[in-house]
Amino acid sequence: MTKSILHFNGVWRSYQKRILDDLDFHLRDSKLHIVAAPGAGKTTLGIEVISRLNRASLILCPTNTIKNQWKERIQTSFLQKKDFGIVSTDIHNPSFLTIVTYQALLAAFCGHNDDESEDCQPDKEDRKEYAITNSSRFQMEKAEEIIGILQSANVSLLCFDEAHHLRKEWWKALSYLVEHLKPAQTVSLTATPPYDADINEWNRYQALCGDIDEVISIPELVKNGDLCPHQDFIHFSKLHPHELELLKNHKRNVNVLMEKLREDARLHELLSQMHFLQDTDNEIEAILEKPDFFVSIASLLNENGYTIPRHFLDLFDATARDIPKFDIKQATAFLNGFIFVKREEWKDMQAIRSEYHSLTKQMGLTDGKKVVLDGNAKFYRQIANSIGKLDSIVSIVDLESNLLKENLRMVILTDYIRKNCPDCSMLGVVPIWRKLKTEFQENISLAVLCGSLILLPASIVGKFQHLLSDNGISNDAVSLENFEGDENYIQITPKKSIRNHIVSLVTELFNNGDLTVLVGTQALLGEGWDAPSINSLILSSTVSSYMLSNQMRGRAIRIDANHPDKVSNIWHLATYDPSFETMNYDLSQIISRFEGFEAPSYFGKHQITSGIERVWIPIKSGILQTNLSLAKNRELTRQWWNDALYIGYSNKPPIGLSSGVQTNSLTIKSLRYTGYLHYIWILIFVLLSFLRRPQHIRSFGLVVVGLVVVALLMGIVAFKYIRTGTVEGVLKQISIVILETLSTQGLIKTSLKQVGLRVTNDLGTMFVSCANLPAEENNLFIQCLQEFLDPVENPRYLLVRHERFRNLANQTDYFAIPSVISPNKKSVEIFKKLWRTYIGKCDIVYTRSAEGRKILLKARKYAFSAIKRDVSKRVSKWL
Fold this sequence. Notes:
Elements: H1 14-21, H2 23-26, E1 31-36, H3 42-53, E2 56-61, H4 64-77, E3 87-88, E4 97-101, H5 102-110, H6 131-135, H7 140-152, E5 155-161, H8 170-181, E6 185-190, H9 199-209, E7 214-216, H10 218-224, E8 230-237, H11 241-263, H12 265-272, H13 275-278, H14 284-289, H15 291-303, H16 310-315, H17 328-340, H18 350-362, H19 377-384, H20 388-404, E9 410-414, H21 429-439, E10 446-449, E11 454-457, H22 461-470, E12 478-483, E13 486-494, H23 499-512, E14 517-521, H24 522-525, E15 536-539, H25 546-553, E16 568-575, H26 585-594, E17 599-600, E18 608-609, H27 628-632, H28 634-647, E19 657-664, H29 677-691, H30 694-697, H31 700-724, H32 727-745, E20 756-762, E21 765-771, H33 775-789, E22 797-806, E23 809-816, H34 825-838, E24 843-846, H35 850-859, E25 873-878
Parallel strand pairs: 1-6, 1-7, 2-4, 2-5, 3-4, 5-6, 8-16, 9-14, 9-15, 10-14, 15-16
Antiparallel strand pairs: 10-11, 11-13, 12-13, 17-18, 19-21, 19-25, 20-21, 22-23, 22-24
């Protein structure tokens, strides 16, 4: 192999060096898959990997901005100027290193010579011009032609940058490319793997990229000084009067519908004659398919004085007292089953069904073929885009500008531009700009930066024109005109070919402090765009996904060489009204968003953890409040990060970020070992009574035998109690059973002797994590543990445990055998054997048999809300 022409002229960071030192190990499957937070130097690391493998490579990127970053990094950090010719950005004319966008690859496969792929990521209103290559089907002859060109250039390594973009339609072209080019190796780099994708998308992603080899987390980067300390804040806004009226009207409609359901005697009588109540045994499959629906009928009938047959309740191992109250949740389940599910029995109720269907549509309580009593998608969008958030933005800008003054570098990201919204009645870029320019005449320098709209203050247009001249861009390449007749703001309209250059120049004005507040769309500024000076970010986007929200947040947490003491505040906007608890859509979105963020908690030891609980402060009135005092104290944020990263929370030094499962101790409390303790005490009592009588002491041999028997029994009980007599103990043993089963299956290849299994108990909240497991194996363990602990859905096998001795009553617990174990009966038997070894007796039930279906219904008794089991959560903590 010839010597590589690429030579890095810098110094490797510790985590980069760790990956490079283990490169041969990671490439055992010919695939390197790295997950690294923004700021980890993924691009530089990827180039070095390519250098060491020394193969002609095709590098694929999501945008031209990122493509240009790769080219610039290769040239400035790895090449002499005389060698720049080895880099190409044209897939039709590849070189040793060829860098193109995913969309350019798809365009080439479609026969288009179009590399304008998301130069400035299109705003949602402007997507038509970008749709051609995303929706076109590629032509096989064109695809084969491109494959032939790459093969002629000896391309044998593919590098996927920001590989999470494979969720888009580009994956079809990529799959074809991989299948027919047959690269010797692939390198995949991403900050945000699609953990929240459905199983099909995740499998597709994993098949292309391989198992995750290394994860470089945000806390590790902060500790290393490569990201700045930062904190998240939720700013709650009140609904405006007309939005409150929308909610009140919706609530009135729901109440009217609920009242009608409760008083409809015709309906009640017909429902009471349904087969599932009269002939339950022959309706088991139907009940199992939709248990919530049938329970909702029982709930409605029970509330109206009907007696629910014992044989129906027995299916769920429930009593009449367990039947849930008929509320909005039960009404929603009932109406969706009644209106939209076809059943033979509905013939006599067709008129009533049609009546309720028409009524729910008329009241605006449907969303497609679904009844939604707590708000449909359109209703949620109205609340999520509440103009009350404009008031929140004004409050945040006021707070941050007063604190940071001329050092403020704020970016506000939203979903839509809303050019045609003159009255600021909707949330968007232009309404936010209008509001801020009215409220802040002097304290800030405000600009708009979107793919199709750029606005600058007239006062700095002179500096902008100087930048044009310094960069060799003629004045006639850009048109300048007042926007909406406001002489204080100039709209910049560049020619299409220089749009990227103009974005860079506006960014330079921002970094230099000529602009202090930028308003833009998450489509343009959410990924790839880099402005290290940002120290305040407002996310007024409604995005909740792990992938997109992490991309946006990543803009604010980069270090700034010009301000080494930078600390960033990241603001999340939520509309909340305590009068309508079921309408808190914003909060549910933010809860989902926070599952992927790790930072110090506001509370207790300020441990670095993920999840909404670290920042959520409900006060007694029921209204949620923003902790403004903490937002004002950036030094306190820095201190918390320092304490968590370097001091830790025990006598041991912190080991780093661990992703694990958090669950309520009540979920597994009944599995603790308490057996035979009562027998031990009886034996001790009998033995002591025996020894108290002098005549018995002469029987020395009998005394010795008694003592030995008691000692053995106590030893056995003590051994089992130490292992599983506490909630922590039983949860650890469950984790061991899962780990050993997965290891036996070959799904976990790491030696279990190296695995650092931890179980911690924080006031009844349990956290289980495994140190030293690779990310992919750890994800598999987390998935299995969550499936086992969570309420039973429809597993192939159930683990059933009978407790014969709790308060002199019988109790049965049901748990789902994890899905990756259950397809193989041999693996299920191994799981059972390990359970009996580590925990105790159990039965395994195959739920696809007739008898198994009945037991599955009992296991799904959570349909009765009074006996619902908590759901576990995936949580990351710095331990």
